[in-house]
Structure formats: C-alpha cells, structure tokens
Amino acid sequence: MRRVRLLLARHLWLQLILSVLAASALIMLLFPGRSAVSVVVRTAVTSVGAVVVVLVQRRKERRAAGGSADDVVELDAKLRKGEIPSAPEERRAMRGLVARRLHRMRHRVAALIGLAALFTTVTLLMVFTGTVRQAVGFAVLTVVFVGWNIHRGNVWHRRLRAMEAALSDGSGQDAGRPTPPARAL
C-alpha cells in the first residue's frame, strides 16, 4: 500500500486518470444508458477545476517546504509515520509544510458541514425526483464519502498538531537525541 501511495503522490496525472475512471464508473452505475466515452469525457472536462486546485496546492506546499515535489512526498511519508526529522533543514521544511497544511485546514469543520449539507440535499432531491437506484446510490455515497472525509480530516488534523508540537518542542531535538517511536494514527 505504501508503494501505491508514493506512486500516486509523485504522479498527479495518475491520480487524475484513476479519479476520472472511478467517477465515470460511479456515474454509469447510477445513471445507466449513457455511453461510456461520453461519461468519461464529460467527467474529465468537469474535473479540470479540481486539477487546477490540486496543482496550486501542490505548488504552495512545495514553496512552504522549500524543496521539490519529491521532497514534499518524502516529508509527507514521514508525517504519515510520525517520524520527526532530525536534520535542521528537514525540520525547517517539515515545519513549513505542517504550518501550510494547518492553515489550509483552519475552516475544515465549516467545510465538512457544508459538504454534508450539499450531499444530503442532492440525496433528498434524488429521493423525490430520481429512481430508487439513484436514491439508494446517492444515500450510500453520502454516508460513505462524508464519513470518510470526517474521519480522514480528524486523523490528519491530529497528525499535524502532533508534529507541530514535536517540532516546536523547546528542547530542540537534534540528531544526538533518539526519535520517539511513531504512533499509529
């Protein structure tokens, strides 16, 4: 799983292709009768905004960490494991990355409430105007997607706060002191 995560983190184009294909499959499942090519093309075109947002965020994270995209991927892997960098330059880069991500997450509760309201509204509209298949599909999608976003948001927020606390520790943990064992988050 780690190799797949690193591969996807390094290659945004692969994430885009897999996301478009997964979204297209879901659309074809919920709205049968449309041609596969038209669904894939329409999904790819409507995903352009999301791609721009991801590219801008990646560039801002790279700038905050002061390195290349591969450096951000390596820092992200350390953040996932809970490894505290020992080299001063790596600590500075991690501090920048953590500060950037915490800044980006500052409105996560309001965003999750808005996301839940949006998905619930669409689900209710499907209940009243769509078929049973569409209503059930959107209900399942709403529960799974919103629940997953809430869970992952809480996990990442906890990881970022823990890393922020570890990096701002007044003891200035350096290479001579052992790194505490990583907590499973």
From TrEMBL:
What domain of life does the native source organism fall in?
Bacteria
Alphabetical UniProt keywords: Membrane, Transmembrane, Transmembrane helix
Segments spanning the bilayer are 12-31, 37-56, 109-128, 134-151
Q: What is this protein called?
A: Uncharacterized protein
Species the sequence originates in: Streptomyces musisoli
